[in-house]
Write a structure and sequence with these properties.
46% of the residues lie in helices and 22% in strands. With 355 residues, the protein is an alpha+beta fold. A hairpin with a 2-residue loop joins strand 5 and strand 6. The longest helix is centred in the C-terminal third of the chain and has 39 residues. The chain is elongated, with a radius of gyration of 55 Å. It starts with a helix and ends with a helix.
Length: 355
Amino acid sequence: MSLMAISFVILAALPLSAQVHVEQKIDPIGMYIGQQTVLEVDVTASKDAKVQFPHYERTQYMVPGVEVLSMADDTVEVEQGTVTFVRQYILTSFDENLYAIPPVKVSVNGKEYKGNQLALKVVDVENVDTLHPNQFFPPKDVQDNPFLWSDWSGAFWMSIIVLLLAVLAYYLFIRLKENKPIITRIRIIKRLLPHQKAMGEIEKIKAEQMVMSENQKEYYTKLTDTLRQYIVERFGFNAMEMTSSEIIQHLRESGDQKMIDELKELFNTADLVKFAKYQTLINENDLNLVNAINFINQTKLEGEATEERIVPKLSDEDKRSQQSRKVIKVLLWVVAVIIVAMVVYIIYNIGQLLG
């Protein structure tokens, strides 16, 4: 019973092995040195067979003198369940000889199969016939192509247009340059608050030691002028052109009663010194200075903006001039872009004609 089983397995395996067929062919079988030929290896086997062809690196020798340049694979279905696996080897050679291409070894499902042996003939280029020199002619001279206006007319007329556009661009540039520039620049300046300015002036009076100066008229003039300017900026009426009594009256009418009596006494003392040659004592000068500082501190406004935006005002003529300059700038840029594009095209076109 065991012998029958073994025989059955052997008989079943024979048809399977008979299905594998390896064939190799070369086309062309002869070539000149440096030309290429194709070595094709066909393996016919079952569709699910695992076929492995030999692999060669580029410029690797298949046999001494014959190089492999590249490889390519393909599959062709012969009939249902049977497939032909194809690999092509591109070969070349640089030595004249008759080469024997050995059978290519292929692995199918782990079993090795071989193709058929081939021959490749590589011949040298045919020698030049030196016995008949009269059949050879010298090289011809370089011939110029005939000039055709139709080939150059486009570049010519486009060059004329570029020249006219360049003149226009120059004219626009001169117009833009000669016209007075109208520039509206918004300036942002730091602005001192009224009490900051006044305290700064009082600090100058202190630094110059005018309180102890014999020239009391100058001292009170500077002190009252500082207070008058502060009142102008703080309360909004022109205290610089008013008398002392008018200033006090306006302050009372504004509803601000802070330090009015002390301020009134300070202005009265200043008027006596400036107009009646009244002589004050040093402690009286100190007291008036302190009263001025207290008046400023008690009436100052905090939290106001310390920066001011100054926007220049343009007349209607300036606005029209500014709009005109913008239009000229836009036209100048458009013309410049067109000129550059046309010059590039002309250079390219001439290069094509000369090439």
